[in-house]
Amino acid sequence: MKEQKKSSWGAAMVSFFKEYLFNFSGPGHLYYDENLTNEGKRKKNYIWRVLLLVTAVGVALLPFIAWNMFVPDVLWAKIVAVVMCEGYAVFIVSMEIIEVKDELKEDILKIGGYKITPKGSISLFKEIDFKIVQTEYSYTILISKKPLKWLYKKFYVTIYGRHGKVKKIELVRADKKYSTKYETMNDTVLEKLQEENNRFLRKCLGIPSKKSMSGVEYHYEWGQIQSFYDNRSCRIGIVIMF
């Protein structure tokens, strides 16, 4: 019987320790994630990342902790040790930053457990997660029943479809402060929340392709991602268009 794949932190830890212990005796880097789901593999990568960052911090501090352990008269040896240790620490941190950014780019079109393809079928979205609020002519609108994760934040998701294909996805942050209340939402509050969305997109996607009064825009060959802000309807969010 085929073993069911797991996504728990426990399963990720077991896979991590196998890789950590057995790679010393095996050729190259051996992977032990055959029983992990994609989420489980992600968790295992987080564990590796924490270990590497802790190691980088330790290496960076080593020359200062052991400064007086070197021969006092050999200043060049101390300088070489500092340069090597700090260089190694910077290299590790840089590689981890690049890896995190690459992971975020891969997840641009992943919402919750749904991997969305440009102009993918509207039938991809399951009734357990979404409810149909409109089906007229060739248009369909679906709204998520609960917040779904996009990149590393949770959003309420609205799917707009036409002729059975996804045309637009609207994302509104699930944080309590983003809930629409006309009596508390004024221009100052809306602009502040909009700037939070802009910072979130810059952090995840980098420098925007275009800036406008309504937000920031990122253009791709399959479509675009942009933040939006409408003070008349008190709506602030992010939209993905194909």
Output the structural class. Answer: alpha+beta
Mean pLDDT: 80
Beta strand count: 11
Distance between the termini: 42 Å
The biggest sheet amounts to:
9 strands, antiparallel
Element order, helices and strands? HHHEEEEEEEHEEEE
Name the overall outline: globular
Q: What proportion of the residues is helical, as a percent range?
A: 25-40%
CA-atom Rg in angstroms: 24 Å
Blueprint of the fold:
Blueprint: H1 9-22, H2 38-65, H3 75-106, E1 110-111, E2 114-115, E3 130-136, E4 139-144, E5 148-150, E6 153-162, E7 165-173, H4 187-205, E8 210-212, E9 215-220, E10 223-230, E11 235-241
Antiparallel strand pairs: 1-2, 3-4, 4-6, 5-6, 6-7, 7-11, 8-9, 9-10, 10-11
Helix pairs in contact: 1-2, 2-3
How would you sum up this structure, described in words?
This protein has 242 residues and is α+β, with helices and mostly antiparallel strands. Strands 3, 4, 5, 6, 7, 8, 9, 10 and 11 form a nine-stranded antiparallel β-sheet that branches. The protein has helices at residues 9-22, 38-65, 75-106, 187-205; strands spanning 110-111, 114-115, 130-136, 139-144, 148-150, 153-162, 165-173, 210-212, 215-220, 223-230, 235-241. The mean pLDDT is 80. It is globular and about 80 Å long. The protein is built from four helices and eleven strands. The relative contact order is 0.08. The longest helix has 32 residues, at 75-106.
